[in-house]
Amino acid sequence: MANATETAIERELVIAAAPETVWELLVDPAKASVWMGIQSWSEPTPGGLYRVEVIPGHIARGEYVELDPPSRLVYTWGWEGDVNPTAPGSSTVEFELTPEGEGTRLRFVHSGLPSSDQAGSHAHGWDHYFDRLAIAAAGGDPGPDPWQTGEMS
């Protein structure tokens, strides 16, 4: 995995699942909730709503910008309310999925974050959720998310 820069996070990982499987876990609200969030609302078309209650009372919201199934997904990102200085739509999340053997290489960039502190905080969150995504994509059960019960680490 790569490092957080001042206003962007970059990650690269290989997941033991086909790109189509990973794609569905990114855009299907029911499948997305298995690995990240309590509930998710999604209109995966350009201009459509992206919204997920990640942990109780913390809702991320954005808009789909680009969808090229199952290889590229881009949406804006930010937090509703005053819980976080990253406002809805103020940053951009990009996923690139490429086949690698029997799995998928996921390249991820979250850019436009307002500070290095926000980049570090978001990096911690994405790292937590990418572990859960990899388990779910491979057909496993990531189990209950400890962050949903306040056991954040």
Let me know the CATH homologous superfamily. Answer: START domain
The DSSP helix count reads 3
Topology as H/E string?
Answer: EHHEEEEEEH
How widely separated are the two ends? 19 Å
CATH topology name, in short, is Alpha-D-Glucose-1,6-Bisphosphate, Chain A, domain 4
- Using the coordinates above, name the CATH class: Alpha Beta
Strand order of the largest sheet: 1-7-6-5-4-3-2
CATH architecture grouping:
2-Layer Sandwich
Q: How many strand segments?
A: 7
Number of domains: 1
Radius of gyration: 14 Å
Which percent range fits the helix content? 10-25%
Query: Strand count, sense and closure of the main sheet?
Result: 7 strands, antiparallel
Question: What report would you give on this structure?
Answer:
There is one protein chain. The chain is of the alpha+beta class and 153 residues long. It has a single domain (9-142), classed as Alpha-D-Glucose-1,6-Bisphosphate, Chain A, domain 4, CATH 3.30.530. 25% of the residues lie in helices and 35% in strands. The protein is built from 3 helices and 7 strands. The chain has helices at residues 19-27, 29-35, 116-137, and strands at residues 9-15, 39-42, 49-55, 58-68, 72-77, 91-100, 103-111. It has a 7-stranded antiparallel beta sheet. The longest helix is centred in the last third of the chain and has 22 residues, at 116-137. The model is unreliable at 1-5 (pLDDT under 50).
